[in-house]
Design goal:
Elements: H1 17-28, H2 32-46, H3 50-62, E1 66-69, E2 74-77, H4 79-84, H5 91-100, H6 104-114, H7 122-129
Antiparallel strand pairs: 1-2
């Protein structure tokens, strides 16, 4: 006999601009009036996709477009710099860009690990790659 399963399908919508503004304001612990232009720009570039919002905000840090001011005790950015940053078209492109910034030894260990699927013992990676990673 064949088993049947009940399947429910639902569509997930992207974040609204208002939700993106709230999210970024809460994350940066700054009032909305300070983050509105940043969050609106991020929303336009990400089309409200929460993953892209997170990745874009991370890329601003990585690319030194956003930084924390110890003197002012808050996050700072130049909105024109943020507007000039492109957003990668796919998750794979974004991840490739992030991986390419890793040290060569780590990239080579990841190549070895990828041959084993989703789980591999760190000792195997070290033995096969010739690197002491941990």
């Amino acid at each position: 006999s064949s088993a049947s399963a009940r399947v429910t399908t639902f569509n997930l919508e992207g974040l609204t601009e208002s939700h993106t503004i709230d999210l970024i304001s809460d994350s940066l612990k700054l009032p909305i009036r300070w983050t509105r232009s940043l969050a609106s720009t991020v929303h336009k570039k990400s089309l409200g996709n929460p993953f892209f919002v997170k990745m874009f905000m991370s890329s601003l840090l990585d690319d030194h477009k956003q930084s924390y001011s110890l003197r002012d005790r808050c996050w700072k950015w130049d909105i024109d710099d943020v507007k000039g940053v492109g957003i990668e078209e796919t998750v794979a492109t974004m991840m490739s860009k992030r991986i390419s910034r890793l040290p060569v030894a780590v990239i080579e260990a990841l190549i070895v690990a990828s041959c084993f699927g989703v789980r591999v013992d760190k000792g195997v990676i070290c033995s096969l790659s010739g690197f002491e990673l941990f």
